[in-house]
Amino acid sequence: MVRRPDPVEVRTLLDNLAHRPRMRGTVRALFVKPEKGATPVSLASVEATPTGFGGDYHSRRMSRRQILIISWSVLNELDLEPGVIGENVVVDELDVMSLTEGQELRLGEALVAVTFPCEPCGHMNRIRSAFKEALKDRRGMFVKVVAPGAVRVGDPVELVPRESLADKPPE
Predict the structure, then answer these.
(1) Whose CA is closest to 106, among 159, 144, 49?
(2) How far apart are CA 71 and CA 67, in angstroms?
(3) CB count, 10 Å around CB of 120?
(4) What is the mean pLDDT of residues 32-46?
(5) Structural contact between residues 135 and 93, judged by C-beta atoms closer than 8 angstroms
(6) Gap between the terminal Cα atoms of the chain
(7) What is the pLDDT of residue 96?
(8) Residue, of 8 and 117, whose pLDDT is higher
(9) Nearest to 56 by CA among 91, 90, 88
(10) Cβ–Cβ < 8 Å for 141, 118
(11) CB 20, CB 89: distance < 8 Å
């Protein structure tokens, strides 16, 4: 005999799915800053190297701040053009702030790992008065390159599932 699903269980499952952050997005814009204080340069593609984005002032091998990713929705809500707050990657359809340290993302052909959230600094108030506060908990997440590769506008951004303990081979 086939068991009919309980309507309460179905509703709970659907509610959970509707409120779960989307774990797939698209690269909407790419930027590098060739030197300190320079205007960000918009690119159609960039190479993610072991130090960060090729040609970016912030590229450093051991840095946990190699690349800054922000959600398009944040820029849209704040009526900002991409690149204006120093981000390297603008991602559509992915809540970047829902990511946690250590999670890995496939960013085009590259693999990156989330390091920590970017805290807005006083420079943000040069863009708008009290803007630092408006960006609190929304400025984006820093990532470091795990495996190099090309990243292009339009490329997919996908969360790489973590291995569960049950999937790991015994030591």
Answers:
(1) 159
(2) 13
(3) 19
(4) 93
(5) no
(6) 43
(7) 95
(8) 117
(9) 88
(10) yes
(11) no
Q: Are 15 and 26 in contact (CB under 8 A)?
A: no
Give the whole-angstrom CA distance, residue 38 versus residue 41: 9
DSSP symbols for the chain: -PPPPPHHHHHHHHHHHHHSPP-EEEEEEEEE-SSTTPPPEEESEEEEETTEETT-TT--TT-S-SEEEEEHHHHHHTT--TTTT--SEEEES--GGG--TT-EEEETTEEEEEEEEPPP-GGGGGTSTTHHHHTTTTS-EEEEEEE-EEEETT-EEEEEPPPPGGGSPP-
Distance, CA of 96 to CA of 135 (rounded, Å) = 13
Residue given tokens 């053009």 in the structure block? 81
Q: Is the pLDDT at 15 greater than 50, yes or no? A: yes
**Domains of the chain in sequence order:** 28-156 (2.40.33.20)
Cα 43–46–51 angle (5° rounding)?
Answer: 130
Q: What is the pLDDT of residues 100-158, one digit of tens each?
A: 999 999 999 999 999 999 877 767 767 777 777 777 888 899 999 999 999 999 999 99
Query: What are 37's two structure tokens?
Result: 């204080």
